[in-house]
Amino acid sequence: GTPKSLLGIDKPRIEQRGSRIFLYWTIGGDASDVIAYQIDLRSDSDSDWRQFDGYVTHSPSEIHFRQELTNLETNKHYYVKISAIDQSRRILAMSEATSFTVHCQGIMDEGIRLVWNWPDEEDRKCEPYFLITGYQNGIPFAERVAGEQRQFIFQKAVPGEWHVEMRAGNRAGTGPSSVPVNLQSTSKVSSKGLRVLRSICDPRVDFWCRSPDENYDIAISHHPNEEQFIIISLALLARYWLSSIDSALA
Questions:
Q1: CB neighbours (10 Å) of residue 205?
Q2: 62, 42 in Cβ contact below 8 A?
Q3: Domains in the chain, CATH or no CATH each
Q4: pLDDT tier at 113 (50, 70, 90 boundaries)?
Q5: Closest CA relative to residue 69, chosen from 33, 47, 40, 48
Q6: Which SUPFAM superfamilies match (predicted)?
Q7: Phi and psi (nearest 5°) for 246?
Q8: Percent of the chain with pLDDT over 90
Q9: Mean predicted lDDT score pLDDT of the chain
Q10: Tens of pLDDT along 150-163?
Q11: Lowest pLDDT segment from 11-15, 178-182, 242-246
Q12: Cβ-contact 169, 128 below 8 angstroms
């Protein structure tokens, strides 16, 4: 038969968006034995490489991958490399190392901030994460968020209809979806600059108290540095599905 091409990982690429750092890499060749990818980081002050936040699961249909790098120090120089591993955690291929420095950047884009509550009992070895899915003006989106995060910002978001669901997951799989959140966002700015962030359910103003066919306008608050966000609280929503997801991931 035709010989299989050797697995290779291109030199990874770093992109900084505001205060967030994203790592991108592309693979080529035979990836049939790949089960996951390991990210290793090292700063100028480190003598050894350290593994970053568990493993990134391999998707057989994908050759391009992305992972957000968190908890990095500003104005520090880092090196990062990617390794492909098999079921036995054996390294099948390794990329060249890419170097980068974390800089402070002004946040200029508008966005929608999604905020949720979640207990911290999850074992990091289980590689917890959150999966955010839905539609914005009829266009589907999906975002995977690291398990230690409790918020996510949709950058360059435009006003319109939003339908959002969340699921918690780990290496064993994902739990059930949250109750869908349906809302209508506009570019209105509150005259008092108040943020919409509540822990008490008030059907007059809180979207999670309303039926799916009802819409309401969310006021966008003024950030001290002129950044504008829509603040969405899912505190009560999270409580509704905590128990079922906990049992699913136990």
A1: 13
A2: no
A3: 8-101 (2.60.40.10), 111-249 (2.60.40.10)
A4: confident
A5: 40
A6: Fibronectin type III
A7: -55, -45
A8: 31
A9: 74
A10: 888 877 667 778 88
A11: 242-246
A12: yes
Residues 6+ apart with CB under 8 A from 28: 5, 7, 8, 9, 10, 63
CB atoms under 10 Å from CB of 74, counted, come to 10
pTM above 0.85, yes or no: no
Q: Tell me, what amino acid is at 118? A: W
Instruction: Return d(Cα 143, Cα 112) in angstroms, integer.
Output: 13
Q: Which two tokens stand for residue 208?
A: 């999670």
Residue type, 184: Q
SS3 22: strand
Report the candidate in 158, 170, 162, 165 with the shortest Cα–Cα distance to residue 132: 165
**210 near 246, Cβ under 8 Å?**
no
| Tokens linked to 41 | 């980081």
Query: What mean pLDDT comes out for the span 77-100?
Result: 96
Please check whether residue 102 is in contact with residue 75, taking contact to mean a CB–CB distance below 8 angstroms: yes
Task: Look at the chain and count its residues.
Answer: 250
Residue 103, both tokens: 């800089």
